[in-house]
Specification:
Layout: H1 5-10, E1 20-21, H2 32-43, H3 54-74, E2 81-84, H4 87-99, E3 107-111, H5 120-129, E4 132-136, H6 147-151, E5 158-164, H7 176-185, E6 189-193, H8 205-208, E7 212-215, E8 226-230, H9 232-235, H10 261-276, H11 285-312, E9 317-319, E10 329-334, H12 339-347, E11 351-352, E12 355-356, H13 361-366, E13 374-378, H14 385-399
Parallel strand pairs: 1-11, 3-4, 3-5, 5-6, 6-7
Antiparallel strand pairs: 2-8, 7-8, 9-10, 10-13, 12-13
Helix pairs in contact: 2-10, 3-10, 4-5, 10-11, 11-14
């Protein structure tokens, strides 16, 4: 049993253009209820948060509602949900705040599997503090990043480990809970990039053991901004730079300036939209989200199997996504052909499968693909069999062309 895919697709206006979208890892298309929620927030009275006037109360309701929704999605405490412009901005903000307590000789661990937004902020913060950065490698043949890969980089001076919950380039899902255990045994904090992971797997921040978990609603049918989850008591120990008159309460002390109320309304709507895919009316939102993610996994597994079998039947296609646990995101290269050319060829046929390294520069280089990367094919909740077959037919036609140069 799966959710009603036809009904879901009918609620995504962008799909009416006819494009087969495999660009979900870069951002999903937006359902109408999310669009409506954004419009409703903007069309009603809306002011800075308060309790006296309708616009003030509306703003406060939007913020508290979005915090509760994201807490339900992530298995977190609403009091530990921080909103920001993007996951990248939040990571930069927290890297600067955490690095204020670092000193020469301290160490930070990053991985070559990660998006650069979970590498560069830590590298730059460590450089300013005089701390040492240690890089954990993944196996380029299997795509696996193991707990042992992290353990080898830990020491008594490790202050923080930054690792992805799922690679946005090749889909690898590292064993985060196991990594969290050894990181905490070393006395360090764990910062997890869950931007790609949250779109495909049910998050339970406590079960994962992440001290900080960051994600982006526009990867799972919502609007463009970032969300960070952490324990409120941990946030209480951190003191970011902020304006003198702005509140020092948690989590607001980390939210610089006025929040994008309309986008927060859209985020709550996106979480509610996901919960509704469960087909269940009873039970709380978290319970319905648990069921939805079970259905999403079933749907995406069936399509990924079809896609992988189709790719295996094409001569000259190399699939770089090989980890045992991975999201339905495949990075492929084409013998004798540039993937940038394949991207353009497919685009002309209404298939969106972009080419590049997608800010995962270290991962692309470690795979031997330099900064060029490959063709990334990502499945989303609205992807259907026809989309997959159009992609495979387009690739087959492209591979019939003479090899490049």
């Amino acid at each position: 049993m799966t959710y009603d895919l036809t009904a879901l697709r009918a609620q995504v206006p962008a799909l009416a253009a006819g494009t087969a979208h495999f660009d979900g890892p870069g951002g999903t298309q937006t359902p109408q209820p999310v669009i409506d929620a954004i419009g409703a927030a903007l069309s009603g009275p809306l002011s800075n948060r308060g309790a006296l006037l309708p616009g003030e109360r509306n703003a406060d309701t939007v913020v508290t509602g979005a915090r509760r929704a994201m807490a339900d999605l992530l298995g977190a405490d609403p009091a530990g949900i921080v909103f920001g412009r993007s996951a990248t901005q939040l990571t930069y903000d927290f890297s600067r705040t955490l690095a204020a307590g670092w000193s020469p000789g301290d160490e930070v661990v990053v991985t070559r599997l990660d998006h650069d937004s979970n590498i560069r902020p830590w590298v730059q913060a460590a450089e300013r503090a005089g701390a040492t950065v240690r890089h954990a490698d993944f196996d380029p043949d299997t795509g696996e990043l193991t707990a042992d890969d992290i353990r080898e980089r830990l020491s008594g001076r490790t202050r923080l480990v930054a690792v992805t919950a799922a690679s946005n380039l090749i889909g690898t899902i590292p064993p985060i809970a196991e990594i969290a255990r050894i990181v905490h045994e070393a006395g360090a904090l764990l910062y997890v990039d869950g931007v790609h992971y949250t779109a495909h797997a049910l998050v339970d921040v406590e079960a994962l053991g992440a001290d900080f978990f960051v994600c982006s609603p526009y990867k799972f049918l919502g609007p463009h901004h970032g969300v960070l989850a952490a324990r409120p008591e941990l946030l209480e120990t951190l003191h970011p730079d902020k304006l003198l008159p702005s509140t020092d309460a948690v989590p607001e002390r980390f939210e610089l300036g006025t929040l994008p109320y309309e986008f927060l309304a859209g985020t709550r709507a996106a979480v509610d939209f996901l919960a509704a895919l469960s087909g269940q009316r009873a039970g709380d939102r978290r319970a319905r989200l648990v069921r939805t993610y079970e259905l999403l996994e079933e749907h995406e597994t069936v399509l990924r199997d079809r896609l992988e079998k189709g790719l295996a039947a094409l001569d000259g296609v190399t699939v770089r996504s090989r980890a045992a646990r991975r999201t339905p995101t495949l990075l492929i290269t084409l013998d004798g052909h540039r993937t940038e050319d394949a991207y353009r060829f497919l685009a002309e046929r209404g298939v969106h499968a972009p080419s590049g390294s997608f800010y995962a520069l270290e991962a692309s280089r470690h795979l031997g693909l330099g900064d060029t990367g490959g063709l990334r094919v990502g499945l989303a909740p609205y992807t259907d069999v026809e989309d997959v077959d159009r992609l495979l037919a387009g690739l087959a036609a492209f591979l019939e062309r003479p090899a490049h140069g």
